[in-house]
Amino acid sequence: MLQVALPNKGALAEGASALVEAAGYRCRRSGRALTAHDRTHGVTFSFLRPRDITTYVGNGVLDLGLTGRDLLLESGIPLQEVEALGFGVARLCYTAPRGWGLTVNDLAGLRIATTFPSLVARDLEQRNLKAHLVRLDGAVEVSVRLGVLDVIADLVQTGSTLMQAGLEVFGTPILASEAILVARHPGPALSRWYNGFFCASAASSWPAPTS
């Protein structure tokens, strides 16, 4: 059976399940089950932490995975982005308390909280800047409010969470991210999964799966 990884939680999970079901596959799981089997079409879906999906696909345990471009590039695992899926759109941006008036050049020497240290380090290197990176998971916004750190580099979607935390974006985005389909060695056996199946436009009609 084809082995496909789907996010088990977070912003990508709902869109991923909706996309697969709209295409005619059955991926509903019972309770907290970690897998769902669509025996009609020969597919097993494994529900994993979004950040772990690239690891399982990269090790060859699973054939395909649906995750975020940000997570793929942060992992450094050499997978191929097969198709952009058009949901879970977000920007990885620098943010600071509203009114500070920072520019990207002001980052030198500051303390930056992020869940994407590799991507941020790469961006700073390209700008020839040195700063202190601190990896945090979860609600990183509170780190600036508590005075522990100066700046946050995090994903921004609507910006409403930033506004509530009294933060604002500055500088150009580090990365434009969205949900993507990834594979280690895409080939003819996987073609039905990415040749027009996952449409980048949510307005498109998804074709029914072929057995």
Brief rundown of the structure:
This protein is of the alpha/beta class and 211 residues long. It has helices at 11-22, 53-58, 69-75, 117-126, 141-145, 160-164, 191-194, and strands spanning 2-7, 35-38, 43-48, 64-68, 80-84, 90-97, 111-114, 132-135, 151-156, 167-177, 179-183.
Compile the SSE list and pairings.
Layout: E1 2-7, H1 11-22, E2 35-38, E3 43-48, H2 53-58, E4 64-68, H3 69-75, E5 80-84, E6 90-97, E7 111-114, H4 117-126, E8 132-135, H5 141-145, E9 151-156, H6 160-164, E10 167-177, E11 179-183, H7 191-194
Parallel strand pairs: 1-3, 1-4, 7-8, 7-9
Antiparallel strand pairs: 2-3, 4-11, 5-11, 6-9, 6-10
Written description of the protein model:
It is elongated, with a radius of gyration of 19 Å. The chain is 23% helix and 30% strand. It is of the alpha/beta class and 211 residues long. The longest helix has 12 residues, at 11-22. The termini are close together. It has helices at residues 11-22, 53-58, 69-75, 117-126, 141-145, 160-164, 191-194, and strands spanning 2-7, 35-38, 43-48, 64-68, 80-84, 90-97, 111-114, 132-135, 151-156, 167-177, 179-183. The chain folds into two domains: 2-88 and 179-194, D-Maltodextrin-Binding Protein, domain 2; 90-177, 3-Layer(aba) Sandwich (D-Maltodextrin-Binding Protein, domain 2), CATH 3.40.190.10. Residues 196-211 have low confidence and may be disordered.
